[in-house]
Amino acid sequence: MAATIKDIAKKTGLGLATISSYLNGGNVREQNRIKIEEAIEELHFEVNEVARGLKTNKTKMIGIIIPELNNIFCAEIITEVEDQLRSHGYATLICDCRTDERREEEAVEFLFHRRVDGLIIMPSGKQGKYLNKFIRAGKPVVLIDRKIKGIECDCVLVDNEGAARDAVERLLGAGHREVGMIAGPEEIYTAEERYHGYCKAMENAGIPLDENLVVRGDYTIEGGAAAMKELVRRNPDMSAVFVSNYEMTMGAIIEVNELGIEIPGQLSFIGFDNVEFAKASIPKLSIVTQPTEEIAGRVTELMLRRLEKAGAEEEKETVKLKTSFVEGKSVV
Amino acid sequence: MAATIKDIAKKTGLGLATISSYLNGGNVREQNRIKIEEAIEELHFEVNEVARGLKTNKTKMIGIIIPELNNIFCAEIITEVEDQLRSHGYATLICDCRTDERREEEAVEFLFHRRVDGLIIMPSGKQGKYLNKFIRAGKPVVLIDRKIKGIECDCVLVDNEGAARDAVERLLGAGHREVGMIAGPEEIYTAEERYHGYCKAMENAGIPLDENLVVRGDYTIEGGAAAMKELVRRNPDMSAVFVSNYEMTMGAIIEVNELGIEIPGQLSFIGFDNVEFAKASIPKLSIVTQPTEEIAGRVTELMLRRLEKAGAEEEKETVKLKTSFVEGKSVV
DNA sequence: TTGAAAGCGCTAACAT
DNA sequence: ATGTTAGCGCTTTCAA
User: Fold this and answer.
1) How many CB pairs (< 8 A) connect A and B?
2) Is B49 within 8 Å of A114 when comparing Cβ atoms?
3) pTM of the predicted model, to two decimals?
4) Chain A nearest-CA residue for B114
5) Position B309 pLDDT exceeds 80
6) Are A280 and B82 in contact (CB < 8 Å)?
7) Of these four, A146, A269, B213, B306, which has the most CB atoms within 10 Å of its CB?
């Protein structure tokens, strides 16, 4: 059996409190410190975080709920958050809810039972009643990518509308009038924001909205390819296109190659996310990129702040981050 | 404060043991069952898994250590494993160690302190001494994708050598003699296995190995593109190529487009993993695919079996899974 | 079937 | 600085 502090106490002849104090960075006489360290070494003692958690009512675990681990945007953020939390001693319990609201709610329950100290969630559902459980329990909740009405918590968002508008304005600025868009599913909030950005840009330029110029894809590679095909079929004169997520960007590029359309000669192109792919493409793609590292950084920062007494009472924050634009050779 | 079983006991007038028994599926008189359920409902009682874990010495948590969450092969497996474990009541603690052996060891420590019941690991290092800690503690360890000498535990592997040999043989079977390969880094064990598969196939066909025909990439998109370029430069007569991971497959395809090489007319092509990308490509790519779902299934199955008393003593297993070949239009 | 009591390994008051 | 003690919320003998 693994050694406990009792064993250390016995071995050293010291009291439990002294050992505990040592373990938690308290003051211990030099000579005792040495004794304790020897005993720890000898007995291979390791703190039992479970017992500690029971006592302190802190598990040093953070729950993370995401729609799809299998999605580069999510994965990049999670990787970073997990890393940072771990370096602060927090373990990360990840639940992938497959973009399913029911599963999402189950995951919230699951994590609550496990008494995680806080919850980070990229919500699939537009409802978030079940999050109140955490909030009532005084446990911090940080939302990523999407705000939920009526839930009092911190949020880290991206300016999706601005990003899309900016991208489209670049195309308009290059003289294009027939600018197409491959949009995402209506149910996805951020997809709608990007669509609105497109509309705004066209509106501001005084170009009446032509619904033929917008095709919705399902955020997959194949969906992007299909949408591209449809877009070209409907709009023979379209001279530029904006694609609004990574997977569809890849699909669209594949379809463009298939159709033998030359970028940027025949078609100017702005894609989304994944710098690597953009750089590796021929010609290099101009893309909108979301600041995944910054998102992750802000999320952990907020979470850690709330977890410390000091931060708990401060007013909730909503951070809205700017996207970047990576210039390639795909717009002319 | 959250309700405890004491509160339930008080409310119902029953003893702690009865409540506990109810909670754990024991026999409770119908009439008491109802009383308990009412009390639970009323007080919003939820079992504290931490306390339970302290008592039972089981945390119902499984640690997972992977080299890179940001890698589609890992992400697919993890998603599936997490899902299955959760449906069996196990939480998953994921640690991404960035393909760094030092970080990997830290993660093992971290998870051990947290008293996870078992460990699933896709090892970065070739050494695994630190895993013995788990094994000594009687906690099951399951290795994915890579075996480690001297570590007594279950393994779920993929027949990488066979997969590569098979792919290359298909190219040879189609009449190609100058078959190139984009291989992975030497340090990566599975990359070497794939390289050996290539060598075997060539050898068996009686074709002397030409080192010009093998270029190593670093498993990234850009690395794949660069390797492809180099391969073509070195071997103007090469008529077929085998690329040995997903990211490099994508890069190679991009470069092929750039160079204006026509697949399969000028170059036959077999890639690796990611069916979606293969399907979306033009022409559809023939690829080797790893059975991520099956890997995940076997891993969870092994883990769950070991976690039950019954399975703990059985002899350790090494499962070697076959890859599949998805026929596209890229070989002729 | 149910209750009483002990104890998992730790922390935190409190006393010294 | 250190020891004593109680108790976190649960499970698990043992008796009844």
Assistant:
1) 129
2) yes
3) 0.92
4) A49
5) no
6) no
7) A269
